[in-house]
Design brief:
Length: 270
DNA sequence: CGTGTGCCCTGACAGC
DNA sequence: TGCTGTCAGGGCACAC
């Protein structure tokens, strides 16, 4: 369940249990996820203390007292299970501390785990070319305007490009474009500054509201019953094909963009 | 360079 | 009850 809000709530939830904890044992149940696990993962993490946790885009960060950071990505199907009652299929990595047990479960294995020198995180290749955090101060209308200038690609696809904004995924791009009344098919470079002025707060609001809901979801995460996040009941566009637009008398349509579904209201998103 | 395509992988679900 | 096809919250390699 990993989009930015889920990664954020996952990180916050893990922090409550992991911050300040010393790792006593690391178990790999297979050699890889998307990539091979780092060759020295077990050695590097065993005995290390988790000093703090963080997030960059859709990546979670476990900082250690050894000047190295464990960076995880949940891909499409990844989640952390905290103090699981029993082992499950696809628990690929298990980290134990004196008080708790954490299993990284990812059926599709699109996720990843890496070890990066903490001081060099910004230069780590997936982060090096990344755009600003959508909830940070460096994402501005001017940034969007500059980054999108001349782009012929549809705005929907531009917003999924992590070099323009870091951390948006399919759900929140659809939701933000609906809120800003922007047609997802419009070329990125053709979105007016006025429209970008609506888009920026729309992005912030949809992420912030989802994080607020995700916070209540996190406990379900920790007690692994797989319950849907509350925010899913509040979608205005995503997954609502054929249902009435909540804003007018149009109805939501779905179509394909870059091999992935886009939902929008053709009547009010221009 | 920007842009489009296909693939990595498993599981859930619809339709036959 | 199987099968088969489709789709899924992401990211990357590759071709033009």
């Amino acid at each position: 369940m990993p989009e930015l809000p889920e990664v954020e709530t996952t990180v916050r939830g893990l922090a409550r249990y992991l911050e300040g904890e010393r790792v006593t044992r690391v178990v790999l149940n297979r050699p890889d996820m998307r990539r091979p696990f780092p060759a020295d993962l077990v050695q590097a993490m065993t005995g290390a203390t988790i000093t703090s946790l963080g997030r960059r885009a859709k990546y979670g960060l476990l900082h250690t007292d050894r000047a190295r950071t464990l960076v995880f990505h949940l891909g499409m199907s990844g989640r952390w299970r905290i103090d699981p009652a029993e082992d499950e299929a696809h628990d690929h990595l298990v980290i134990e501390t004196e008080g708790h047990r954490f299993a990284l479960n990812d059926p599709r294995r699109f996720g990843s785990v890496d070890l990066v020198d903490t001081a060099a995180l910004d230069a780590w290749s997936p982060f090096a070319a990344m755009g600003p955090e959508p909830l940070g101060e460096s994402l501005t209308v001017d940034h969007l305007h500059t980054a999108l200038a001349g782009r012929k690609q549809a705005i929907k696809l531009c917003l999924l490009d992590q070099r323009i904004v870091a951390g948006l995924g399919n759900i929140y791009v659809c939701e933000a474009l609906w809120r800003a009344r922007i047609n997802p098919k419009r070329a990125g470079g053709q979105v007016s500054k006025a429209a970008l002025g609506r888009l920026l707060p729309a992005i912030r609001e949809v992420l912030t509201q989802s994080i607020a809901d995700g916070g209540s979801t996190l406990r379900d995460y920790a007690q692994p019953d797989g319950a849907l996040g509350y925010f899913a009941t509040r979608f205005d566009a995503y997954g609502r094909e054929g249902e009435p637009c909540r804003r007018g008398d149009g109805s939501i349509r779905r179509f394909d963009q870059g091999g992935r579904s886009t939902w929008y209201c053709p009547k009010c998103q221009r």
